[in-house]
Protein backbone atom coordinates (compact mmCIF):
# COMPACT_ATOMS: atom_id res chain seq x y z
CA UNK A 1 0.00 0.00 0.00
CA UNK A 2 1.37 3.40 -0.98
CA UNK A 3 0.63 6.33 1.31
CA UNK A 4 0.70 9.97 0.22
CA UNK A 5 2.13 12.16 2.99
CA UNK A 6 2.83 15.87 3.27
CA UNK A 7 6.52 16.64 2.74
CA UNK A 8 6.42 19.31 5.44
CA UNK A 9 4.39 17.97 8.39
CA UNK A 10 4.06 14.27 7.38
CA UNK A 11 0.24 14.29 7.59
CA UNK A 12 -1.33 11.42 5.64
CA UNK A 13 -3.09 12.85 2.58
CA UNK A 14 -4.19 9.66 0.82
CA UNK A 15 -3.30 6.12 -0.22
CA UNK A 16 -3.32 3.68 -3.15
CA UNK A 17 -3.04 6.39 -5.80
CA UNK A 18 -2.19 6.06 -9.50
CA UNK A 19 -1.70 9.08 -11.73
CA UNK A 20 -0.76 12.70 -11.00
CA UNK A 21 -2.23 14.87 -8.26
CA UNK A 22 -1.48 18.19 -6.58
CA UNK A 23 -2.63 18.45 -2.97
CA UNK A 24 -2.60 21.31 -0.48
CA UNK A 25 -2.14 19.97 3.05
CA UNK A 26 -5.08 20.98 5.27
CA UNK A 27 -2.81 21.06 8.34
CA UNK A 28 0.16 23.22 7.26
CA UNK A 29 -0.81 24.54 3.79
CA UNK A 30 2.19 22.96 1.99
CA UNK A 31 1.57 22.05 -1.67
CA UNK A 32 2.65 18.54 -2.70
CA UNK A 33 2.74 16.98 -6.18
CA UNK A 34 2.56 13.19 -6.48
CA UNK A 35 3.18 11.29 -9.72
CA UNK A 36 2.67 7.54 -9.90
CA UNK A 37 2.73 5.07 -12.76
CA UNK A 38 0.92 1.76 -12.95
CA UNK A 39 3.66 -0.78 -13.71
CA UNK A 40 1.10 -3.50 -14.47
CA UNK A 41 0.30 -1.78 -17.77
CA UNK A 42 3.86 -2.37 -18.98
CA UNK A 43 3.21 -6.12 -19.14
CA UNK A 44 -0.02 -5.93 -21.17
CA UNK A 45 0.40 -7.21 -24.71
CA UNK A 46 -1.22 -5.39 -27.63
CA UNK A 47 -3.92 -7.38 -29.43
CA UNK A 48 -2.84 -8.93 -32.72
CA UNK A 49 -4.72 -7.40 -35.64
From TrEMBL:
InterPro entries: Translation_reg_Com
Any Pfam family: Zn_ribbon_Com
Protein name: Com family DNA-binding transcriptional regulator
Organism: marine sediment metagenome
Lineage, opening ranks: unclassified sequences, metagenomes, ecological metagenomes
Amino acid sequence: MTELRCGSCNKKLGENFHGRIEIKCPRCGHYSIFISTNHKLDNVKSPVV
